[in-house]
Write a structure and sequence with these properties.
With about 475 residues, this protein is mainly alpha-helical. About 70% of the residues lie in helices and about 5% in strands. The relative contact order is 0.09.
């Protein structure tokens, strides 16, 4: 029973948000707002607890049951795991960002993995996919962050949406959004990944347009949907080419084996580029659109028309970070294309500069934070362009929490000012809201990378790597 506990925890973390959404959407009218809010929030917290358990035991699980002694050398002389090493968690979690094969492949009976297989999902000629989910080096961190942030947003919404007559639908969509994001990051093949990718886009449209009686809200939701479809088509194009090269096998384990084989088609596409460059560039474009990078960023500030909890969930750890996750998941593919890495580097750098400058000219408190999100995501892509996928994942983890705190505090300020969002009409809040003031300062200092705050650690590492890379290139 203890041996299989991680598998049960994994299934619970994935499917509890779906149960929460079903309860709110189909039984909410019977339960009423109070019970729906409490029940959905409790279920999401339960999912977060299971994901926290996986996050805590994953390094030990990976080290205890898989022979990694030679690979990372983290065992002490008596054969036990050296928990005291400061590199243990870092190496066990984020050193292999592109879908650790030990936790995807079930070909070797001696391997114990966190792999759930529910049967065949799609079977057509030259194309097949299973309903399978996996907890590996990347998804372990992603699921933990997504469920924790979602649980906090649900808790915040129990008060923020208390007077809304359609709050049952809101909680249902919020939980559905969480479910699609979780299956996006735990999918073990491209089909499950694409289902989660499209599900997140659909849920975000419904949440942004939650107050559908407002014309600006509907326009913002439609704009987000239309722009994101550009990225969806690029992603679908990349997946179709990639799966065709692997003979219809959609699993990440097969894709990784194919990429590591080093034998690629020499076919040149109609655009005059090698096919691997085209696939990598299509993945990068899809990631840029979903993460609101330069030239595709206009939908993100307009998405602030939705309720503040939606803004916190979209910007902190879910939809906009799906693009970063996509690049990290397909890092082995991106590494084969120098052109894709250059686009990641330059696109991320340009977004950091552009978004930071534009934010200085904004007066809407939520739009200022939205542009800061574009800037931080640009920094993550900048790190990916330097092949520092572990640092991008580290900054994602830090950014999720302080950005969620910023949005939730902004919602409290807006609520206190009777829906006023113009910062020119605000001032002197430290006297009347001292706790809010302290928390807002802490989140803002972390955002700017002030020493001793979480944002400073990941930002400093990325900038140091960029400086080191530039120095080596000059020499």
């Amino acid at each position: 029973m203890v041996m299989f506990l991680p598998y049960y925890a994994m299934a619970a973390a994935i499917f509890i948000p779906l149960a929460s959404s079903a309860v709110a959407l189909f039984c909410g009218f019977l339960l009423g707002y109070v019970y729906v809010a409490r029940l959905t929030t409790s279920l999401i917290f339960l999912s977060a607890a299971f994901s926290g358990y996986l996050f805590a035991v994953f390094p030990y699980f990976k080290e205890r049951f898989v022979d990694y002694t030679i690979k990372i050398g983290m065992y002490s002389h008596d054969g036990r795991v050296d928990w005291g090493s400061r590199h243990f968690i870092e190496k066990a979690l984020i050193r292999e960002p592109c879908c650790d094969p030990v936790f995807v492949s079930v070909a070797e009976s001696t391997s114990i993995d966190l792999h759930l297989l529910y049967g065949r999902l799609v079977t057509v000629p030259a194309f097949f996919a299973d309903a399978e989910f996996v907890i590996d080096s990347v998804s372990c961190i992603m699921v933990f962050t997504v469920t924790i942030i979602s649980a906090l947003v649900h808790l915040y919404s129990t008060v923020y949406m208390r007077s809304d007559p359609h709050s049952n639908r809101f909680f249902g969509l919020l939980s559905l959004f969480t479910f699609f994001m979780v299956i996006l990051v735990t999918g073990a093949n491209t089909v499950i990944l694409y289902i989660g990718w499209e599900g997140v886009g659909l849920s975000s449209f419904l949440l942004i347009a939650f107050w559908y009686t407002r014309a600006m809200t509907v326009k913002a939701a439609t704009k987000a949907l239309v722009i994101n479809k550009v990225g969806d088509m690029a992603f679908l194009y990349a997946l179709s080419l990639l799966v065709s090269l692997t003979g219809g096998n959609t699993s990440f384990a097969s894709i990784r084996s194919f990429l590591e084989g080093g034998v690629y088609p020499t076919t040149i596409t109609e655009v005059g580029l090698p096919i691997m460059d085209v696939i990598a560039l299509a993945v990068v474009v899809a990631a840029f659109v979903k993460s609101a990078q330069l030239f595709f960023h206009t939908w993100l500030p307009d998405a602030m028309e939705g309720p503040t909890p939606v803004s916190a969930l979209l910007h902190a750890a879910t939809m906009v970070t799906a693009g970063v996750y996509l690049v990290i998941r397909f890092s082995a593919l991106v590494e084969l294309s120098h052109m894709a890495k250059v686009v990641l580097f330059l696109g991320g750098f340009a977004t950091v500069v552009f978004s930071s400058i534009v934010a200085l000219a904004q007066y809407d408190i939520k739009k200022i934070i939205a542009y800061s999100t574009c800037s931080q995501l640009g920094l993550m892509f900048f790190a990916c362009g330097l092949s520092a996928y572990d640092l991008a994942l580290f900054h994602f983890f830090n950014h999720a929490f302080f950005k969620c705190l910023l949005f939730l505090i902004a919602g409290a300020i807006i609520h206190e000012f009777k829906n006023e969002q113009d910062i020119r009409k605000m001032g002197g809040l430290a006297r009347y809201m001292p706790v809010t003031f302290v928390l807002f300062c802490a989140a803002a200092l972390s955002l700017v990378g002030f020493p001793s705050f979480s944002g400073a650690v990941s930002k400093d590492l990325i900038l140091l790597l960029a400086n080191f890379t530039a120095a080596n290139s000059e020499s």
